[in-house]
């Protein structure tokens, strides 16, 4: 293997005290939901809110004085950018980060805030990556790869050492896969410490690149996944070899499962986790039978999620669990119709959030109106009771699903 347990232990000593030794906690509520003992490694509590600091720092600390003076460069639109920028500034190493032009301004500002020189180039990550390699040649920078580098992989593997120190009886580790750096380091360390432990990789269903490659298929990737941190079309060469050797299987998770996991972590653990960071929990929620009765650990590998997007995820979760609904109520367009409808809402204890009348853009007769009501209740049973009462009053009611 290109990375060994000795490399990872050396990395742990090297970065000790310079990254957060994040909590590894047993989740009583999630354990009850899944039917397993579920342990969570809160890497979203790193200073830059992601595990990427471990690998980036281990790489930077091993540069020669001449390499440090030349400076480093990386291509990233996310957590790797902030990790390299932050620790580069701490160590006095000049850092250049190449980001795609559409990168959200907040990510650019955060990266620049850590002292990095940000270069915006190209429309997608591949464009930014190619430009970063070009600048590496032209300027003599040292390239810090986000995942396909032995020093980076060894740094990420320190996560597993901490997990097994906190919970040595774990049967299974469930780890998100993007480029493969995190799971390569974790699998290397975990299998060396506990050879019979099961290591499961998780990819977003829209980006099954590593699973396809390991199976000998051409990767079929694409789509706007919530787990953009693991939306990698071209995973590493080093990492795919390690994964093929040490990872027991790779599971795919749907967008619904990822959204559900993000929402549960906010509601149950009071912790903000990005889509990629919640992928391991999503896999357990998606197919709990695979984990029932086991002692399972997963890494909440990042917490950098846009606040507006997080708000959407949380509201959509309320819709899925029946707390929020949008009802379309067909009624005669006459005085008293709306009063009768609001009376039913009051009697059922359902709160009206918003209402809209549609008289023109509807297939109803000209004398009728379509009243669309967004409402909130204590549970789905209250909404069902409301629909039954409205229909008892003679109204025709349909409920809008999430499509």
UniProtKB/TrEMBL annotation:
It catalyses: L-serine = pyruvate + NH4(+). It is an enzyme of class 4 (lyase). It comes from the Bacteria. InterPro entries: ACT_dom (IPR002912), ACT_ThrD-II-like (IPR044561), Ser/Thr_Dehydratase (IPR050147), Thr_deHydtase_catblc (IPR005789), TrpB-like_PALP (IPR001926). One of its GO terms (molecular function) is threonine deaminase activity. Coiled coil: none annotated. Residues 326-403 form the ACT domain. It holds the Pfam family PALP. Keywords: Lyase, Pyridoxal phosphate. PROSITE patterns: ACT. Its EC number is 4.3.1.19. Its cofactor is pyridoxal 5'-phosphate. Belongs to the serine/threonine dehydratase family. NCBIfam families: ilvA_1Cterm (TIGR01127), PRK07334.1 (NF005600). This is Threonine ammonia-lyase. It comes from Sphingomicrobium clamense.
